[in-house]
Design brief:
Strand content: 15-25%
CATH architecture of the largest domain: 3-Layer(aba) Sandwich
Bound molecules: pyridoxal-5'-phosphate
Distance between the termini: 59 Å
CATH class of the largest domain: Alpha Beta
Structural class: alpha/beta
Order of helices and strands: HEHHEHEHEEEEHEEHEEEHHHEEHEEEH
Oligomer: single chain
Strand order of the largest sheet: 2-10-9-8-7-3-6
Radius of gyration: 21 Å
Number of domains: 2
Number of strands: 17
Number of helices: 12
Shape: globular
Largest sheet: 7 strands, mixed
Length: 402
């Protein structure tokens, strides 16, 4: 008899954002006349920028001509894009990088979820609490997390690093022995960041303990303050201990286009085996590359005009973040994040849980956010709003909350 992978039964029944979508759709069925403002899921609303549209149209034309048609592309991404990534995202920042270390993919979600496949099942995983759910769930599916304790809402074999107001949302170095450390900076959901000095402590720790950092920099483009690293490789020695995930989703409005990349430095060797070689092997077996049209679109971002246009869009979301922060503060809420990230993390009024606040906001103000507890037990009592809505709906949401 065929048996299922029982690890799947340890997962929460639904992915967080599917639960939210269901609640909103049920509410709309009963209240079709209510205008719901969605500041829940972190999806962009501005269209892709003109230089990308132009490049993709041209690529479509090429695909329609016998001479320029392309079939399967390289699993690792076309050289034209890998070279631009190396030049603009790394060499311009003084970080040495080779194109063979860049693996273009169709999303940081898949890559952050898939990467753990390369690593032994007995490795101990450390995650922040709250956390982007994919890191935890993908390790649950693989069977790396042990059983779920209903009382603590935690998995037995996972090391949770609480990030709360008490520690300024900065995770502390684990005291237990850990092997894989997931860090997301700027952080989803709390919107907070680490300075270079603080991130260096993590790199030094990983070196000392022979751990691997899985560094998700999907929101790097939203950094506004000085001294906040845009890449973990700005920290000396990081290429020996860190994998970096980057995405065009939030940087360039590619959530529907789908393009991202993962950096697997050649320096990382484990027991004499190169992770770069293993990831390459994995991708060649299980992935057939990102569409040529998409990669030409991503390439267009790496031009002066492309950079100017994406910055305008990011500026628009930053202004939304400011409107939300200020609006919430005026309404008497305690807020965090929103300065170097498109997420605003607020404390819910004391008598309510995160999900109760979600329901109240939906029913009374017709605003959708994300309950903090959906990201982990230490997220209880907090709530996430995103700056990715339209300007009008962001302003209206703040007016409703006044
Ligand atoms: N990483 C983080 C921390 C995210 O919040 C998200 C999306 O919300 C992703 C990765 C997914 O990125 P992509 O659209 O490239 O799959």
């Amino acid at each position: 008899m065929v048996k299922i992978n029982k690890n799947y039964l340890k997962l929460q029944e639904n992915y967080l954002f599917s639960t939210i979508a269901k609640k909103v759709s049920d509410f709309q069925k009963i209240n079709p006349d209510k205008k719901v403002i969605k500041l829940g899921i972190g999806d962009v609303t501005l269209p892709i920028i003109p230089v990308v549209v132009k490049a993709m149209k041209q690529a479509v034309e090429e695909m329609g001509e016998k001479e320029t048609f392309k079939g399967y592309g390289p699993e690792q991404g076309y050289d034209f894009l890998r070279e631009k990534i190396v030049e603009w995202d790394y060499q311009k920042r003084g970080i040495p990088m080779e194109k063979e270390e860049i693996f273009v993919s169709d999303g940081a979600k898949c890559d952050t979820g898939n990467f753990q496949e390369l690593l032994d099942i007995n490795n101990t995983v450390a995650i922040t609490d709250p956390v982007y759910p994919v890191y935890l769930d993908s390790n649950v599916m693989a069977g790396r997390t042990g059983g779920f304790n209903r009382e603590t809402q935690k998995f037995d074999r996972v090391v949770y690093m609480p990030v709360t107001e008490k520690n300024g949302f900065v995770p502390e170095l684990p005291k237990e022995k850990v092997d894989l450390i997931y860090l997301c900076l700027p952080n989803n959901p709390t919107g907070t960041v680490l300075s270079k000095e603080k991130l260096k402590k993590w790199v030094d720790y990983a070196k000392e303990k022979e751990a691997l950092i899985l560094f998700d920099a999907a929101y790097e483009a939203f950094i506004t303050e000085e001294n906040i690293p845009h890449s973990i490789y700005e920290i000396e020695g990081a290429k020996e201990v860190a994998i970096e995930f980057k995405s065009f989703s939030k940087t360039a409005g590619f959530t529907g286009v789908r393009c991202a990349y993962t950096v697997v430095p050649k320096e990382i060797q484990m027991g004499g085996v190169s992770l770069n070689t293993l990831w390459n092997r994995r991708q060649c077996t299980k992935f057939n590359g990102v569409p040529y049209i998409t990669q030409r679109g991503a390439e267009a971002i790496y031009t002066e005009e492309g950079q100017k246009q994406i910055k305008e869009n990011i500026e628009y979301y930053r202004e939304n973040a400011k409107i939300i922060r200020e609006g919430l503060e005026k309404a008497g809420y305690t807020v965090f994040g929103g300065i170097n990230a498109p997420y605003i993390w607020l404390k819910v009024p004391e008598q309510l849980t995160s999900w109760e606040f979600f329901d109240k906001l939906l029913e009374e103000k017709n605003i959708v956010g994300t309950p903090g507890s959906g990201f982990g037990p230490s997220g209880e009592g907090y709530f996430r709003l995103t700056a990715f809505g339209s300007r009008e709906s962001t302003i209206e949401a703040m007016q409703r909350l006044k």
